[in-house]
């Protein structure tokens, strides 16, 4: 006769306790993994945003002074009160403004001899005399033809025209591009509430980078408070940009203990900074059009 033996109540209880303990360990590990995955996801999003926004800033700095006449009184670059101001005939978000036309004066009219525009479409331009880079006139562009109202060109003189779309600086002869941190602009809910948004302004503001705590700019080689454009063109070596930016979202299991001083420049942490990750971004740009 076969003997049929089952599990005792104690054995079942022990088995259930072991299963519960293993499930708890697995759940805790899964929760940690999910938190880390979400944190990494926010960090990746932040890095993509940084790369996009900072590339526009880098291009603007690189082209400061581009197309600006030698006799222009407004400074091609200024830094003060948390605002970086750049003047150029290029707006890097408008491809129609990239490039130039070279024209020769024939019979009192401008005849285009070189069209080096990246894209057509701009209908206005700032025109400089080629020989001394001084301002000649504002003009209009139709196709590849340049026309000027109220000014006569000198026969056989060569001129350079810089296309623009809705210029807002240098008495409508250039763009005035401003960068600053706005504390009133909308930002993602996961940003530290005491951070701001790095904005770029030409006529209207455009957000470039969220969760920015502080930023500083160093114009290496000059002090623009009393410098002329000639001084800036001759002495400006580079533009150094320092930003303190939040990485990812708030993490109660993390405490920031890092240093926010670099190259003798101190970037200020915001209130309630402890449970956020902070990253210092530094880059150096050498203007190409001085």
Topology:
Layout: H1 9-62, E1 77-80, E2 83-88, E3 101-106, E4 109-115, E5 124-129, E6 135-142, E7 145-148, E8 158-164, E9 175-182, E10 196-202, E11 204-220, H2 229-235, E12 238-247, E13 261-262, E14 265-266, E15 277-285
What would a concise description of this structure say?
The protein has about 290 residues and is α+β, with helices and mostly antiparallel strands. It is about 20% helix and about 35% strand.
Number of helices: 2
In terms of structural class, how would the helical and strand content be classed?
A: alpha+beta
Quaternary structure of the protein: single chain
Helix content: 10-25%
Calculate the mean pLDDT score and round it. Answer: 89
Rg for CA atoms: 29 Å
Total strands: the figure is: 15
| Spatial sequence of strands, sheet with the most strands | 1-2-9-10-11-12-15
As a percent range, the share of strand residues is 35-45%
Distance between the termini: 104 Å
H/E series: HEEEEEEEEEEEHEEEE
Q: What sort of overall outline do the alpha carbons produce when their principal axes are compared?
A: elongated
The total number of structural domains is 2
Low-confidence stretches: 42-46
**Largest beta-sheet details:** 7 strands, antiparallel
Characterization of this structure:
With 290 residues, the protein is of the alpha+beta class. It has two domains: 41-75 and 177-285, no CATH class; 95-164, no CATH class. The protein is built from two helices and 15 strands. The strands form three sheets. It has a seven-stranded antiparallel β-sheet, covered by helices on one side. Strand 3 and strand 4 form a beta hairpin. The radius of gyration is 29 Å and the shape is elongated.
